Amino acid sequence: MRRSMKLAAVVLSGSLGIASLAACGAKSTDTSTASGSGSGSLKVGMAYDIGGRGDQSFNDSAARGLDNAKAQLGVTVSEAEAKTGEAEADKETRLSSLVTAGFNPIIAVGFVYQPAVEKVAKANPNVKFAIIDSSSTTQPSNVTSLTFSEQEGSYLAGVAAANKTKTKHVGFIGGVQSELIKKFEAGYKAGVKSVDPSIAVETTYLTTPPDFTGFNDPGKGKEAAQGQLDKGADVIFSAAGSSGSGAIEAVAMAGKWAIGVDSDQANQPALAKYKDHILTSMVKNVDTAVFTYIKAAKDGNPLTGIKNFDLKANGVSLATTGGFIDDIKAKLDAATQQITSGATKVPTAP
Description:
By secondary structure, the chain is of the alpha/beta class. The protein has 2 domains: 16-148 and 287-309, Rossmann fold, CATH 3.40.50.2300; 150-284 and 320-340, 3-Layer(aba) Sandwich (Rossmann fold). 37% of the residues lie in helices and 21% in strands. It is built from 10 helices and 13 strands. It has helices at residues 16-24, 58-73, 88-100, 114-123, 150-164, 179-195, 218-230, 243-253, 286-298, 329-340, and strands at 32-35, 43-50, 76-82, 106-109, 129-132, 143-148, 169-176, 200-207, 235-239, 257-262, 278-284, 306-309, 316-318. The strands form 2 sheets. A 7-stranded mixed β-sheet has the order 1-3-2-4-5-6-12, with helices on both faces. Helix 4 links the parallel strand 4 and strand 5 (129-132). Helix 3 (88-100) packs across helix 4 (114-123), helix 5 (150-164) packs parallel to helix 6 and helix 5 (150-164) runs antiparallel to helix 10. The longest helix is centred in the middle third of the chain and has 17 residues, at 179-195. The radius of gyration is 19 Å and the shape is globular. It starts with 15 loop residues before the first helix and ends in a 10-residue tail after the last helix.
């Protein structure tokens, strides 16, 4: 972060999921806030990816877990937000600032933090770090990876899409063409094909690394969705951070079905006007992972290594808001059982 951290009261929100995706829309500055119950509590730092609170998706889910820990465990928290186009050094400075301020553990939200986390963790071996959505064979022992089986939840989203399409033509929009988002794509396509191999699946990525603005550009999301709609897709799944809000808008305006991601997007106030066209959301329960990690640290039994949250562990799921997938519940339950039993092995690459 280029701007120095400022202390301020954190306003609790019962709908943090909304905050995340909206925030994925770029903010012009970095900010940091801190709040908590007192000097004797565990001090937890969180460094968000671009957008932070308000993106209605990924960051918000992490924020929800932090708020739950604050409310239920009495921890003191500090939150720092990134900005679009920042340098790697900015991430390192953000994490180092949290270390200097005495926060331990520190949670980095998003795979883009991997190099910075490794560097700062090596320089501060007595501070515990967690990184969401990334793992590395080179990371030091004081770093814990919190990962998810996104492909499994996305497989269920694909089953839902295949059962709801009327044109036998569906779409997938990825924010950034990274290994992580390819897991969403792979699972979604496999789920669609498990129902009907003849269904066409459009795929569009908004950007490729090192350009990560694809997670933070609703305009690009809207344009990509419109392109897929024009080709005949009538169910579109977006795994694109706040860019997905633009895709949802385009799909809703066309009277088709959108599938949200990370948070239950039909429950997000900023997307309320489109909720009747959000078929479901592939929810990634980042809040569960964050809370679990913080509680373990508070209990003196910190998580180490790689902790994966899969479908069986409720790490991923499909939202049922609106009741639009109630009629295919038996099919989704059957697909879920096949995955959790190990009978269906969901691919992680397209």
